[in-house]
């Protein structure tokens, strides 16, 4: 059964407790939570007037922006690698 290997971890993100269930290791889940917390605190320090909902949305926007940049770089590197093999 696929649910047998799920990890259930309680983490603190921006002063709130969240229980996260996932297939990844506990250390991976904690790292992700820590990175989200760090990004929220970074954005909050630059925009202290933001409420938590807006802060969470801006954190998500920043995370997806970073993800897309890394994905584009990966795709470009894969294309370059393919072209060197041809």
Automatic annotation (TrEMBL):
InterPro entries associated with the record: Bac_CellDiv_Activator, Cell_div_ZapA-like, Cell_div_ZapA-like_sf
Subcellular location per the Swiss-Prot or TrEMBL entry: Cytoplasm
Biological-process GO terms, alphabetical: division septum assembly; FtsZ-dependent cytokinesis; septin ring assembly
GO cellular component: cell division site; cell septum; cytosol
Keywords: Cell cycle, Cell division, Cytoplasm, Septation
Superkingdom of origin organism: Bacteria
SUPFAM superfamilies (alphabetical): Cell division protein ZapA-like
One Pfam family cited in the UniProt record for this chain: ZapA
Subunit structure: Homodimer. Interacts with FtsZ.
PANTHER family documented for this protein: CELL DIVISION PROTEIN ZAPA
Function noted in UniProt: Activator of cell division through the inhibition of FtsZ GTPase activity, therefore promoting FtsZ assembly into bundles of protofilaments necessary for the formation of the division Z ring. It is recruited early at mid-cell but it is not essential for cell division.
Protein name: Cell division protein ZapA
Gene this protein is translated from: zapA
């Amino acid at each position: 059964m696929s649910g047998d290997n799920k990890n259930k971890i309680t983490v603190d993100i921006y002063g709130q407790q969240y229980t996260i269930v996932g297939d990844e290791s506990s250390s991976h889940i904690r790292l992700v939570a820590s990175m989200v917390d760090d990004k929220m605190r970074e954005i909050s320090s630059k925009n202290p007037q933001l409420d938590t909902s807006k802060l969470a949305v801006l954190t998500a926007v920043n995370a997806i922006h970073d993800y897309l940049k890394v994905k584009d770089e990966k795709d470009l590197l894969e294309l370059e690698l393919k072209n060197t093999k041809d």
